[in-house]
């Protein structure tokens, strides 16, 4: 089925400029949305708990910071950009009691709606604006006059105008410069979780760590292994980003291309594809969501242990040493968050 893609000319920025927006959370996505909405002429306030460490960052940028309940009460469009596992509590305690007829409840990812963790009332619009990239790059691209593509979805159209509102919001954060695709909460949630688990984060991290281990365990220098499997990966992915896998293959040597064509499918073997399908199944049937919610409720013991193990992987120390010598690589994540 053909997708609908919208660009700046399709969006009416005045719609979002006529709303009072509360952004709940000021992390990776929250800071990017808030600052770009403000720069697009939108009336924004930030909702953060009294003790939140994000408060100072938002205030430093001249944004008005209220509690989540105050911000929700004042606004007529509430965008929830707090961690997925915390959203249902914030919704119950701070947002739901302040929802009025005609308000809009927005999400940056469909997790809580897809897995029925939040059930909004029928008198509000429920929509999503989900940039397809990390928040810090969403902001950096906006400032550079570019944009990160975004998905929009409407779960509930109480006003009859929810799609135009979502598109207007997406344009205000730069998404419509690159392209805004209409989807559903289910499609966004399932593809986003699959992408980050199997390819972008889980798949790529494991591929890099394993490649580094194979080279160093065989006696090669960690510095050479680092450049080979991590640093150069960005350069290769840049070529894919610019012109697809074909462009990448055009630019590499024919020796590399022959290795790519014949050895790639041995690394990502049919067994790996089967495992990817299992991972997708766990996303579709809710197994992953239940596991993650339970892990968070238990205080994240497994998450913390695995994160620490990752930080201790030898590739991190090697990489830090080498990046410290390349002044242009270690760009601060942003000036603001
Ligand atoms: N990271 C990304 O680039 C992407 C994220 N998303 C989605 O965006 C949403 C936000 O994720 P992300 O930006 O990574 O989140 P972060 O973890 O970067 O930031 C979360 C923010 O929420 C704040 N927060 C924590 N608890 C509360 C609370 N009770 N009330 C209000 N604010 C609170 C945190 O404040 P404090 O500093 O006090 O902890 C912080 O400012 C999620 O739905 C995620 O799936 C979608 C696309 C990409
Ligand atoms: C790839 C991870 C992501 O889905 C994203 C930046 O888009 C996330 O949840 O952070
Ligand atoms: Mg994503
Ligand atoms: Mg995600």
From TrEMBL:
Active site: 109
Annotated positions binding NADP(+): 26-29, 52, 54, 135
Alphabetically ordered keywords of this record: Amino-acid biosynthesis, Branched-chain amino acid biosynthesis, Isomerase, Magnesium, Metal-binding, NADP, Oxidoreductase
Domain KARI C-terminal knotted as annotated: residue spans: 184-329
EC number: 1.1.1.86
SUPFAM superfamilies documented for this protein: 6-phosphogluconate dehydrogenase C-terminal domain-like (SSF48179), NAD(P)-binding Rossmann-fold domains (SSF51735)
Residues the record lists as binding Mg(2+) 2: 192, 228, 232
Pathway note: Amino-acid biosynthesis; L-valine biosynthesis; L-valine from pyruvate: step 2/4; Amino-acid biosynthesis; L-isoleucine biosynthesis; L-isoleucine from 2-oxobutanoate: step 2/4
GO-annotated biological processes: isoleucine biosynthetic process; L-valine biosynthetic process
Cofactor(s) of this protein: Mg(2+)
Pfam families given in the database record: KARI_C, KARI_N
Known catalytic reactions: (2R)-2,3-dihydroxy-3-methylbutanoate + NADP(+) = (2S)-2-acetolactate + NADPH + H(+); (2R,3R)-2,3-dihydroxy-3-methylpentanoate + NADP(+) = (S)-2-ethyl-2-hydroxy-3-oxobutanoate + NADPH + H(+)
UniProt key word NADP: yes
Record-annotated KARI N-terminal Rossmann domain positions: 3-183
UniProt-annotated binding residues for substrate: 253
Cofactor binding note from Swiss-Prot or TrEMBL: Binds 2 magnesium ions per subunit.
Entry keyword Cell cycle: no
InterPro entries: 6-PGluconate_DH-like_C_sf, KARI, KARI_C, KARI_N, KARI_prok, NAD(P)-bd_dom_sf
Function: Involved in the biosynthesis of branched-chain amino acids (BCAA). Catalyzes an alkyl-migration followed by a ketol-acid reduction of (S)-2-acetolactate (S2AL) to yield (R)-2,3-dihydroxy-isovalerate. In the isomerase reaction, S2AL is rearranged via a Mg-dependent methyl migration to produce 3-hydroxy-3-methyl-2-ketobutyrate (HMKB). In the reductase reaction, this 2-ketoacid undergoes a metal-dependent reduction by NADPH to yield (R)-2,3-dihydroxy-isovalerate.
Protein name: Ketol-acid reductoisomerase (NADP(+))
Species this chain originates from: Amycolatopsis eburnea
């Amino acid at each position: 089925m053909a997708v609908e893609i919208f660009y700046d000319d399709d969006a009416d920025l005045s719609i979002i400029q006529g709303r009072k927006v509360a952004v709940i959370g000021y992390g990776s996505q929250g800071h990017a949305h808030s600052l770009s909405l403000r720069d697009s002429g939108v009336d924004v306030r930030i909702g953060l708990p009294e003790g939140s460490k994000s408060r100072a960052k938002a205030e430093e940028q001249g944004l008005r910071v209220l509690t989540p309940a105050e911000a929700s009460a004042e606004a007529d469009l509430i965008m929830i950009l707090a961690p997925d596992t915390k959203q249902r509590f914030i919704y119950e305690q701070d947002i739901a009691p302040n929802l009025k007829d005609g308000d809009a409840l927005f999400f940056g990812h469909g997790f809580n709606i897809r897995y029925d963790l939040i059930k909004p009332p029928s008198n509000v619009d429920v929509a999503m604006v989900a940039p397809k990239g990390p928040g810090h790059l969403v902001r950096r691209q906006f400032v550079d006059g570019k944009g990160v593509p975004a998905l929009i979805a409407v779960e509930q159209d109480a006003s009859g105008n929810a799609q135009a509102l979502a598109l207007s919001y997406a344009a205000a954060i730069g998404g419509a410069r690159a392209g805004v695709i209409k989807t559903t909460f289910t499609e966004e949630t399932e593809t986003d979780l699959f992408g980050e688990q199997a390819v972008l984060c889980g798949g790529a991290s494991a591929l890099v760590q394993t490649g580094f281990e194979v080279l160093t365990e065989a006696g090669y220098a960690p510095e050479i292994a680092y450049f080979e499997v991590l640093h150069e990966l960005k350069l290769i992915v840049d070529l894919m980003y610019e012109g697809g896998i074909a462009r990448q293959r055009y630019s590499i040597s024919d020796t590399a291309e022959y290795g790519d064509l014949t050895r790639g499918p041995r690394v990502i073997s049919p067994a790996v594809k089967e495992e990817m399908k299992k991972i997708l199944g766990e996303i579709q049937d809710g197994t992953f969501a239940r596991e993650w919610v339970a892990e968070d409720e238990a205080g994240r013991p497994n998450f913390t242990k695995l994160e620490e193990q990752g930080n201790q992987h030898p590739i991190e120390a090697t990489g830090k040493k080498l990046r410290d010598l390349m002044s242009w690589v270690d760009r601060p994540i942003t000036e603001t968050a």
